[in-house]
Each structure stands twice: as structure tokens, then as C-alpha cells.
Amino acid sequence: MTKKINDKKNIKKSVVVKKEVKKNTPVVAKKTVVAKASNEKKVTYTTLRGMRDVLPKDGATWQKVYDIIKNISTAYGFSYVETPVLEQSSLFIRSIGKGTDVVDKEMYVFEDKDGTKVCLRPEMTASLVRSYVENGMQTLPQPVKMWYHGQMFRHDRPQAGRFRQFYQFGCETMGDANPIIDAELISVAYNTLRDLGIDSVIHINSIGTLQDRENYIVELVGYLRSKRSYLSEESKKRINKNPLRILDSKEEQDIAVMEEAPQIVDWLSPESKKFFTNVLEYLDEAEIPYVLDPNLVRGLDYYTNTVFEIFTEDEELASIALGGGGRYDGLIEQLGGQSTPAAGFALGLDRVVTVLKHKQDKLDKENSQKPKEETRTNKVFFAQLGEQANKKALNILENLRREGLTVYHNLAKSSLKVQMELANKIGTTHTLILGQKEVQDGSILLRNMDSGIQEVVDQKKVANVIRKLLQN
RNA sequence: GUGGCCAUUGUAUAAUGGUUAUUACUUCGGUUUGUGGUACCGACAAUACGGGUUCAAUUCCCGUUGGCCACCCCA
User: What is the rounded CA–CA span in Å between residue A325 and residue A342?
Assistant: First the structure.
């Protein structure tokens, strides 16, 4: 039946593209789409700018990352949550703030069919705050601890470790003002990376309360105005718009000016100062490496007190932050909830994976120079031969799977030789062979790929034999 | 958003203002149908897109798009 359909398709297609088809080439489905007959142009599709696919070769790495973030956030008592990718754009404009780059130039904003201004989320915190308020989570035992992972969108120019759709993992703790919350979040972020085998350092600062910051900004702007002529053009513009951003400018002339500038730490209220000191004490106690960075301010407006970013210690990749976060005690109220303290962090998973792959590449290079050590784990391939064996194959595979055993296979191939080649390419240590003869007497062959020795195994006992192999 | 470098099959590459665009790897098929690691044969597959110069452009020029990198900023 399938054959018939295929034939039909082929006939149709061969009419359409007749001119191009050589006489003896079979017409097969092509990955490129052939447009109308009148227009013989091929149309190919690619990912949009700044978007990318996770390819088969990287799938395992991503899964490993997902496993670890799930384990760690669950162990620390965070509950998994999801929110829509699409939100009202004003949610982010109000929380992240006008004047920030994220809002002013990086948001994917468009009008929905009913005219609503919507956008693809550029980050998760505002969505979770919205969810906290909308779903009355203040009635749950406080604090509410949530973790998530998912794609975020920022219309930025693609660059090393930067994509327009990128993946974040993060945790948010809402409803508790204790500084140990901040330390716990930093600890989760730090230990996630450690579990993944990445050494990292926390860059940390406090930007105080809104009041502290207003006082400081008055002082800072006064200072900057007095040094105006020494600043870069970009920074001159920012004196009025967003003076805090000048702090972490990388322009040489700005850095020189900032050396003498008043530091926000000196303008913290006694309470804010004490809070910051407490956070640092907890970090010391937890033996989490950090550096104080008085110029660290973050590009989002909602932060209060603690702000931090995480960098890998790998020198070649240390210029991009793997993650960041901080406290945002005013945000929940600002978005329509009760006054509620909260804090959170996010890790950029694309960047984490980049670091992991970089480490792996390095390791592979070193290993390829050294003589190979045979630490191969056992893998099993299942090959079938002949019509009867082919029909029996799914049954046997399913029985093995029920026993929790993974065997590689390609049932669509009929030639034993081809299947052996495949087994060899995959690097399996053993191959199960089911042929006509074996089907009839209820046995199966087990071939050791290194020695070439084959033994006959009872089909009923196969699972046990394979299990023993795979345990090694 | 600004700037620099770049664009040939799935990947990596060669070449040319003028016949059928090179080679390797991968993929698929085969070397008589129940046995892999080698070897041999064969097949599929590319000049990103649009315009200009020219008798002729994949090659030269311009634009667009995309990639990499830096800035801005961030994850």
C-alpha cells in the first residue's frame, strides 16, 4: 500500500521536474523545496538571524545540563514552573525600565491581531512576578521558590556566545527579605556550574535601596559633570539618561575618570550596608569565591541591594558572563502586588554549553596526543537478517527495552554486512544477530566485535546476558 | 544600532573572465545474496541572493542577506 502511494508521488513529481531529471536517476525526496514548475528556482530555508538548531551531536550535552539543573534546583527546594513566551510588552517595559538597552532596542515587540502590544520575553523575572501576583502566591507559605528554564529573546547583533533566541535557567525566591536568600541563590548558581565541571567566580556589589541610589546618583552626576570633558561621547550622553551605566564603561578615558568617582558602597544606608555584609559573610561561610566589584551595576532597573554576575575562570572565555542576578524588593509591588521582597538569578545555558564544549575540545586534543587508554564501555547492536527475523525484531527490541536495556539497531537495512558496518561505526562491543535459523530454534547469536567469537544464546536468556554486558 | 573580516555540495577544500567547476571526508548503493574494522567501483550533492560591467561573470564592481569578530549591552 505504501508502495502505491510512493509511486503516485513519484509520478507527479517527475512530471513537475521532468526537465531536470536525468534518465536513470530515481526521483527521490529532496531536502530543498522545489517551487512551481514555471519557476524552477530552488527555495531553501535557513534559521532566522541569531537563531540556531541544537544538532544531534550536541543533544547529549544539553540533556546533561538539563539533568543537572533539575537535580540541583529540586534539591534546594525550588518548584518547576513555566510561563508563556509571549507577554504584554508593557510588563517588561515597566519592570526592566525605559532607558535600558533591553527595552529600548532589544525587545521583539509586535501587535497581535487584536491590536494588543505583545512581545517575546527578554527575561523571566517579570513573567514570574506577574504569575506570583496573578495567581495569588502571597497566600502560599513564604518564600515561594521557583525554578525554570526556557528560551528568551533579544533582538541583538549576534556575536560570540550571543543569540537572539537563547536559553536561560534560573531560580527566584519571592517573599523573604533575609540576606541568606541571596546567598542561597548565589550558591545554587555557583554549584550548578561546579556540578557541570565549570569553575566560576562571582562578581558582586550592592546598589542599595532606591533611596540610597537616588542620593548616590545626585553625588555621581555632580562629579561626572565636573569631569564632563574627560568622558567619552557615549558616556556624556548617559550622564542624564543613565549615569550608573558609566560605571562599567570599558572606554579607557571613562575608566580613568571613574577611578576617582564616588562609590555607591559609601552611599549605602546602614541597613543596606549591613545587609550586604551579611550576604558576603554567608558566601565566606559557604566557601564561594567572589570578588567585590564596586562598578557592577546591572542593565535592568528593578534591582535593589545585591547584584551579581558569574564568570568562568577559563581565561579564554572569561569575558562573557555566564549568568547574573540580584535582589528586587520593589518589583512585585510595582507590578501590582503587595510589597514583597524577592531575589533571583539566571544562567545563560548557551554560554554554559559553549564552555562545556570548549573544555571537551581541549580534553580531546590532549587525549589524542597521549596514547589511547581503552576505557570503552560496552554497547550492543542488534542485527536482523531475512524476512522472518525482520518481523520478529520489534518484538525482541521491545522486550529488551522493558528490561531497561538499550541496543542500537537499524531495522530498515536488510543486508547483514551493512548492519555490521554500522555496528562498527557506532563502536559497539557486541552484536546480536537474529537470522532465519535463530528465529526457528528460538535462539540468537551474540558476537564479540573485538574477538569475533560468537555464541548461541537462548532468546529467553538474552536480556540477562545483555544486562551483564552493559553493567561493565 | 556602529565598525572590521568573510561567503564554492552536509563538512573541509581546489580552480577559472570562455566546454561537463577539483579533491577528500560524510551519506547512499555495489564488489553474487548469513558477518564489520581495511581495499576497490559507482551514485547524490555547491559557486548565498539581486543588480551592474562584458560578446561572455562563479571569478571584477555595487547592493542585499547571512556568518564570524569587536563596540554598545548582556545571558
Answer: 11
> What is the 3 state secondary structure string of A24-68?
CCCCCCCCCEECCCCCCCEECCCCCCCCCCCCHHHHHHHHHHHHH
Question: A166 beta carbon < 7 A from strand B?
Answer: yes
- CB A72 under 7 Å to nucleic chain B: no
Residue-level pLDDT, tens digit, chain A, 472 residues: 233 233 322 322 232 222 232 222 222 222 223 333 333 455 678 888 999 999 888 899 999 999 999 999 999 999 999 999 999 999 999 999 888 888 888 999 989 999 999 999 999 999 999 999 999 999 999 999 999 999 999 999 988 888 999 999 999 999 999 999 999 999 999 999 999 999 999 999 999 998 888 888 888 888 888 887 777 777 777 777 777 777 777 677 777 777 778 888 888 999 999 999 999 999 999 999 999 988 888 777 889 999 999 999 877 777 789 999 999 999 999 999 999 999 999 999 999 998 898 888 777 766 665 555 555 688 999 999 988 999 999 999 999 999 999 999 999 888 899 999 999 888 899 999 999 999 999 999 999 998 889 999 999 999 999 999 888 7
Rg (CA), chain A: 30
Q: Which residue has the cell 572606554?
A: A251
Interatomic distance A248 CA / B43 C1' (Å): 59
HSE (CB half, 13 Å, CA atoms) of A331?
31
Partners of A173 in beta bridges: A145, A343
How deeply is A428 buried, as exposed, middle or buried, from its count of CB atoms within 10 A (0-12, 13-18, 19+)?
buried
Lookup result for grid cell 517551487: A35
Q: How far apart are CA A254 and CA A236, in angstroms?
A: 10
What whole-number distance in Å separates Cα of residue A131 and Cα of residue A71? 24
DSSP A412-443: T---HHHHHHHHHHHT-SEEEEE-HHHHHHTE
Distance A41 CA to B58 C1' (A): 18
